[in-house]
């Protein structure tokens, strides 16, 4: 899978491509099912499969800090897409110029000039262009003029429930990790590089790895039982996601205490899978009270992990250790 950027001619697409376009936030089961169907179409036409997305996501550009918390960063998104047999991801910068581009100009420039799309699959509620003026009907009209077949992908449901990034975001906000994992097809995770922290955890006998999240807002907050992927190694632990109000924190951070692990991780990229929520993040009356609670959290996490083999989302088709 190759990541493409910029507005240019790509000679690899002279014969055309099969494509889809959207945010693909979280790359949930609905997205994965769409991409599987599109890959079958690409194989049938013997054309490369291109997924088109935007950075920042359009709502992040327009709403700034009021935009819904994204489920996945670009890095996290690409990590999942690598397993979906995508040939290319075309990442378009969403800026002032693009925001003012009409739907027709966007389609003619990016879809038919840059990418030479021959088959386009989109959701039935897909909108694009300045003021969201473009819809599926316009795409079909333009597609017929450009020798491009445009088709609509129906909503993907589990037990008659439509799977969407919004549904997953709501589940995470309510601490319902089981539903989130079911909709995603895997436990929810975040990744980040380990930063030098203030050393408080080590002073308390509870060393932590502090991960930079680079997020304006978080899709979940609190204290969780986690499994952490460090290169090819996997370690269990307990994590706090939030601003650490007891010690005067202000920035969102993910800090993880790993069980039976003692080596420096500074600069390393960690992927943290959230398995079970223990409690909300709260401001304690004293640091001693916070420390006592952390030790309680560690015991609660180990108790959960002791039963993990039977509690693993009660989903026999799901195997975290295979991820």
From TrEMBL:
It catalyses: FMN + ATP + H(+) = FAD + diphosphate; riboflavin + ATP = FMN + ADP + H(+). GO terms for biological process: FAD biosynthetic process; FMN biosynthetic process; riboflavin biosynthetic process. InterPro entries: Cyt_trans-like, FAD_synthase, Riboflavin_kinase, Riboflavin_kinase_bac, Riboflavin_kinase_bac/euk, Riboflavin_kinase_dom_sf, Rossmann-like_a/b/a_fold. The keyword Nucleotidyltransferase applies. Residues 183-306 form the Riboflavin kinase domain. Keywords: ATP-binding, FAD, Flavoprotein, FMN, Kinase, Multifunctional enzyme, Nucleotide-binding, Nucleotidyltransferase, Transferase. Its EC number is 2.7.1.26, 2.7.7.2. The keyword Cell cycle does not apply. Catalyzes the phosphorylation of riboflavin to FMN followed by the adenylation of FMN to FAD. NCBIfam families: cyt_tran_rel (TIGR00125), PRK05627.1-2 (NF004159), PRK05627.1-3 (NF004160), PRK05627.1-5 (NF004162), PRK05627.1-6 (NF004163), ribF (TIGR00083). This is Riboflavin biosynthesis protein. The gene is ribF.
């Amino acid at each position: 899978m190759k990541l493409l950027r910029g507005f240019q001619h790509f000679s690899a697409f002279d014969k055309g491509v099969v494509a889809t376009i959207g945010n693909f936030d979280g790359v949930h089961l609905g997205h994965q099912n769409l991409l599987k169907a599109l890959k079958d179409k690409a194989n049938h036409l013997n054309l490369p499969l291109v997924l088109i997305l935007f950075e920042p996501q359009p709502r992040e550009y327009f709403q700034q800090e009021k935009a819904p918390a994204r489920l996945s960063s670009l890095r996290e998104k690409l990590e999942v897409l690598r397993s979906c047999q995508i040939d290319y991801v075309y990442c378009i910068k969403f800026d002032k110029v693009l925001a003012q581009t009409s739907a027709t100009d966007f389609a003619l420039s990016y879809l038919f000039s840059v990418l030479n799309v021959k088959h386009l699959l989109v959701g039935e509620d897909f909108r694009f262009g300045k003021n969201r003026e473009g819809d599926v009907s316009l795409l079909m009209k333009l597609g017929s003029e450009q020798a491009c077949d445009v088709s609509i992908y129906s909503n993907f449901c589990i037990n008659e429930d439509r799977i969407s990034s919004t549904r997953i975001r709501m589940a995470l906000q309510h601490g319902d990790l089981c539903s989130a994992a079911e909709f995603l097809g895997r436990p929810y995770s975040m990744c980040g590089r380990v930063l030098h922290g203030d050393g408080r955890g080590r002073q308390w006998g509870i060393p932590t790895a502090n991960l930079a999240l680079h997020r304006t807002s978080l899709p979940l907050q609190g204290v969780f039982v986690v499994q952490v992927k460090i290169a090819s190694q996997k370690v269990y632990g307990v994590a706090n996601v939030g601003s650490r109000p007891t010690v005067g924190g202000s920035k969102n951070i993910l800090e993880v205490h790993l069980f039976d692990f003692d080596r420096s991780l500074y600069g390393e990229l960690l992927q943290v899978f959230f398995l079970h929520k223990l409690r909300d993040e709260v401001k304690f009356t004293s640091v001693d009270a916070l420390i006592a609670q952390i030790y309680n959290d560690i015991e609660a996490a180990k108790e959960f992990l002791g039963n993990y083999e039977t509690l693993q989302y009660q989903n026999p088709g799901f195997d975290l250790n295979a991820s």
